[in-house]
Specification:
Layout lengths: L1 E4 L2 E6 L4 E6 L2 E3 L10 E6 L5 E8 L10 H4 L9 H15 L5 E10 L9 E12 L3 H10 L19 E14 L4 E10 L1 H5 L5 H19 L1 E2 L8
Antiparallel strand pairs: 1-2, 2-3, 3-11, 4-5, 5-6, 6-10, 7-8, 8-9, 9-10
Length: 232
């Protein structure tokens, strides 16, 4: 990790094959939970805001089906419909992976990263969670679904929270590497419950502004050092 000033550190991803600015005070969750090989996950030590970076196979046109109400949004957008459809599908897949519902707050739009010569897009959604997992448990539960049991480390898991509804904001951007058949997904998730319960006026709005800043810094700094990461 290289110090970059202004509260960020230039951080290696995937064994040094990529790099990006991550806020200081964010823990690499791979040192705590088993993380799938295609993901890098960081979480704030002061709030529950978390960053998930994921490499997945590139979605090709007509390879996915969007819910009717989500697909209808494409009719109002002017950019590349295939790419915008991929943005909405990836966001839909993430938001509904735990049975959550979501509402698009900012429609997908082009917003290129500076260091990767590939099309990129941003989007934002409000996610509503209903279930026995609290937001603090939801992320490690989601990440460990396909990673096997958590190794015994002397830590005791917290008891599940009572079933209730909670909300979070997902700030999302997608980089499309057509040549390498890869989509790079970045999710910045801002759970609201702890912020709302803190009693601090404007705590949610302040954290949302912070998330916008994190996204801007990540989009200007995300870079690929070794393209062999994506195969031939």
């Amino acid at each position: 990790m290289e110090e970059a000033g202004n509260g960020y550190a230039l951080t290696e991803l995937y064994g040094g094959a990529m790099k990006v600015l991550i806020p200081k005070g964010f823990t690499n969750m791979g040192s705590i939970y088993p993380i799938p090989d295609n993901q890098e996950v960081f979480r704030s030590t002061s709030t529950k805001t978390n960053i998930i970076i994921e490499l997945v196979e590139r979605l090709e046109p007509d390879s996915c089906t969007l819910p009717e109400e989500t697909a209808a949004q494409l009719e109002t957008l002017d950019a590349n419909k295939d790419d915008l459809s991929a943005v909405l599908y990836h966001l839909h897949d993430m938001c509904t992976s735990n049975g959550d519902s979501y509402e698009i707050l900012d429609s997908p739009k082009p917003y290129p990263v500076q260091l990767i010569p590939a099309p990129a897009y941003t989007c934002q959604a409000l996610v509503t969670s209903k279930g026995k997992f609290s937001d603090s448990q939801r992320m490690p539960n989601m990440l460990s679904q396909n990673a096997g049991p958590t190794p015994s480390s002397g830590l005791t898991a917290a008891a599940p929270a009572a079933e209730r509804e909670s909300t979070s904001t997902c700030h999302f951007f997608l980089v499309r590497l057509a040549q390498y058949g890869t989509d790079i997904l970045v999710y910045i998730n801002v759970p609201h419950d702890m912020l709302e319960e803190s009693g601090v006026p404007g705590a949610v709005a302040q954290e949302e502004m912070r998330a916008h800043g994190i996204m801007a810094n990540m989009m200007r700094s995300l870079g690929v050092v070794d393209y062999s990461l994506f195969g031939s």
